[in-house]
Design brief:
It is built from two helices and nine strands; from the N terminus they run αββββββββαβ. With 168 residues, it is α+β, with helices and mostly antiparallel strands. The chain has two domains: 35 residues; 119 residues, no CATH class. The protein has an eight-stranded antiparallel beta barrel.
Length: 168
């Protein structure tokens, strides 16, 4: 009778240790998933057609995101129809964006000139999506060609870095 109680206690102790390690592993996994880094290169390649010649060329649109002590620096190049581009920078260089949950936000206002720019990047499932419905940022802060808009552009995160000349 004493032996069977000892076996039950040992079995119970083993079960408690197992549950402890199971909870520990799950906690680490959930923490790791929630702490994925935004830093990196988001890119996608597609065939761009020259509308006058009909020739196609493979071009890569990309956005580079790097964390700083003040927020995130965002820059890149987006290709559109007929080789029109949108270079995502302002006169000082990469855009300084601030994180709010799963969003990166940039705003720039100059009321005297009628400029009210609000650019939002949504981060979800290792990809980014731009929201610039009013197109104010692409018209006044950085220039986008007439056949390209940032609004709705989605780019997946890639393993490689965005090196100089990456999208050219």
């Amino acid at each position: 009778m004493i032996k069977s109680r000892q076996n039950i206690n040992r079995h119970g102790q083993h079960e408690e240790v197992f549950h402890f390690f199971l909870i520990l592993v799950l906690s680490i996994s959930v923490f790791s998933i929630g702490e994925q880094t935004l830093d990196g290169c988001y890119a996608s390649s597609e065939q761009i057609t020259d509308l006058s010649s009909g020739l196609e060329t493979l071009k890569t649109s990309y956005i580079n995101i790097s964390e700083t002590e003040n927020g995130y620096l965002v820059n890149g190049l987006i290709w559109g129809a007929n080789f029109h581009v949108c270079e995502v920078i302002d006169e000082r260089g990469p855009l300084l964006m601030y994180q709010e949950g799963n969003l990166l936000k940039f705003s720039y206002d100059e009321p005297d000139y009628g400029i009210q720019c609000s650019l939002i990047i949504t981060i979800k499932d290792e990809q980014i999506e731009f929201n610039n419905q009013e197109h104010a940022c692409s018209k006044s802060v950085f220039f986008c060609g007439s056949r390209i808009s940032l609004d709705g552009i989605t780019l997946p995160k890639i393993k490689n870095s965005c090196q100089k000349g990456f999208g050219e």
